[in-house]
Amino acid sequence: MKVVCPVDCGNAPRKEILRDWNIAWARGEAAAADLLADNVVYEPVGAPPVEGKAAVMAAFASRFGGDAARPEELHIHNIITHGNTAALNASLLMPGGRVEYCHVYLFNGFAKSAKLKRITEYRIETGAN
Predict the structure, then answer these.
(1) DSSP letters along 32-81, please?
(2) Rounded CA gap, 51 and 17, in Å?
(3) How far is CA 29 from CA 12, 20, 23, 84, 89, in A?
(4) How far is CA 30 from CA 8, 35, 63, 91, in A?
(5) Three-class SS of residue 83?
């Protein structure tokens, strides 16, 4: 999978965490779970929330439906952080179209080692790349 990300997305610890997490889950890597708190809550707008690390990872994995449906490209446009909150917007180029998304994050603390506690997702799927 090709990854396009602005250079400044690696100039702060939380930006690096969010960049690395988005790349890992888009690739289907189990290491993405290491960046989640055990009690993480995933809130896709318009759908019921999902709670717990294993359930959240399963919910994200089901978005792709297998390796053949994995993104061909991930374009991270912006990562904005402030304190224990952050936001990231990106595009996924899929075999059958494009997905535009924005995640709003809450970390479980202020330390550099803090994990993702809440992920709110705004997502739009289009049929064209």
Answers:
(1) GGGGEEEEEEEEETTS--EESHHHHHHHHHHTT-SGGGS-SEEEEEEEEE
(2) 20
(3) 23, 11, 9, 25, 20
(4) 26, 10, 15, 21
(5) coil
- Only one residue has tokens 């449906």, namely 69
What is the token pair recorded at 83?
């304190």
pLDDT at 93: 94
Structural domains of the chain ordered from first start: 2-124 (3.10.450.50)
User: What percent of the chain stands above pLDDT 90?
Assistant: 62
Is 63's pLDDT higher than 80?
no
pTM above 0.85, yes or no: yes
